[in-house]
Write a structure and sequence with these properties.
Layout lengths: L21 E4 L2 E9 L5 E3 L13 E5 L3 E11 L5 E9 L4 E5 L11 E7 L2 E6 L4
Antiparallel strand pairs: 1-2, 2-3, 2-4, 5-6, 5-8, 6-7, 8-9
Length: about 130
């Protein structure tokens, strides 16, 4: 009698469909998001499976172009360049790490809005901040 001691090999599930986070929507150029129809969770990126409940019942959505600056820092390079980087809580409860542009003083809690230049995306303080 032969006993098989090997466990079945599990196959990884690709999470993100693409590396690009920018997409064209009726609302204009926005960050691509995925909403799970099973649990209602919204995530950044075009996903094939929900990061919360692992359901494959997901849909592509445009993420809001506005949010609140949660926290930030400035990265100082050897050549004197300064790169502001921060976490933004989008208006639909998605938090993303993003480049920031200092068109006005950065303070946690201010409203920010998405801006794009070519394939680059970043957030700036909203008008009136």
């Amino acid at each position: 009698m032969t006993v098989k001691n090997e466990a079945p090999v599990s196959q990884p599930i690709a999470d993100l469909e693409t590396d690009s986070l920018l997409g064209e929507f009726p609302e204009g150029r926005r960050l691509i998001g995925t909403r799970c129809r099973a649990c209602g969770r919204t995530m950044i990126g075009s996903r094939v499976v929900c990061s919360s409940c692992v359901s494959r019942d997901v849909e592509r959505v445009a993420l809001p172009a506005n949010g609140v600056l949660y926290s930030f820092t400035r990265i100082h390079g050897r050549d004197g360049d300064v790169r502001p980087l921060g976490y933004v809580d989008l208006d639909d409860d998605v938090r993303t790490l993003t480049d920031l542009r200092e068109t006005a003083p950065l303070v946690p809690g201010i409203r920010v809005e998405l801006q794009t230049e070519g394939d680059e995306w970043f957030f700036v303080p909203a008008d009136g901040q």
